[in-house]
């Protein structure tokens, strides 16, 4: 069994294409150029921020994974500081070489360096391997982040309202529309 050399280094702007490919599932939708531009901004921010580090893992000199470390609060209401390991990803061909462990370990080291008592990260709900990996490293669930398109939430919330409320709102909207039409017609007649 051959040994591989795994090292972490700060990300550079020229890593943006690699990072965009690595994090393609975590980036906003768009074409590759937009994603690379977004990642370039994240890299530049991490280079000047005292509260962020973006690390690239290399295996025998080849980029293998990355993680963004960010100092934040546990929640917007719980102001306990935490180091958040954002999107610790490893390319499939470099898994089971200790790269992921090293990425999460770097979050713990950063937290210790800053005197922060907690480390947090996230894994896709459907990623059983990632969730099991995080659990093996002692990271337990704290909350479930749920996301949906705004229009879908509006439609579902509207459908859950009692029919009387929906009817009253619809009637109110129709009344306001009729008043606007009447005012517009009266204004046109005065001209």
From TrEMBL:
Pfam families (UniProt xref): Acetyltransf_1
GO cellular component labels: ribosome
Gene Ontology molecular function, alphabetical: acyltransferase activity, transferring groups other than amino-acyl groups
Source species of the chain: Nocardioides marinus
InterPro entries according to UniProt: Acyl_CoA_acyltransferase, Bact_Acetyltransf, GNAT_dom
Keywords: Acyltransferase, Ribonucleoprotein, Ribosomal protein, Transferase
Gene3D superfamilies in alphabetical order: 3.40.630.30
Keyword Endoplasmic reticulum attributed: no
Chain ranges of the N-acetyltransferase domain: 6-158
Name of the protein: Ribosomal protein S18 acetylase RimI-like enzyme
């Amino acid at each position: 069994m051959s040994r591989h050399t795994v090292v972490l280094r700060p990300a550079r702007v020229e890593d943006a294409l690699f990072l965009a490919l690595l994090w393609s599932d975590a980036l906003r939708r768009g074409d590759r150029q937009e994603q690379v531009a977004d990642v370039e901004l994240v890299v530049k921010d991490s280079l000047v921020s005292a509260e962020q580090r973006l690390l690239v893992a290399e295996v025998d000199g080849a980029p293998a994974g990355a993680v963004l470390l960010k100092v934040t609060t546990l929640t917007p209401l719980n102001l306990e500081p935490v180091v958040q390991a954002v999107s610790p990803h490893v390319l499939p061909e470099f898994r089971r070489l200790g790269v992921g462990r090293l990425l999460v370990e770097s979050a713990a080291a950063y937290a210790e360096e800053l005197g922060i008592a907690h480390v947090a990260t996230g894994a896709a709900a459907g990623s059983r391997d990632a969730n099991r990996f995080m659990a093996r490293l002692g990271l337990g669930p704290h909350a479930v982040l749920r996301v949906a398109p705004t229009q879908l939430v509006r439609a579902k919330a509207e459908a859950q309202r009692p029919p009387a409320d929906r009817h009253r709102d619809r009637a109110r909207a129709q009344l306001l529309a009729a008043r606007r039409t009447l005012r517009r017609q009266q204004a046109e007649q005065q001209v």
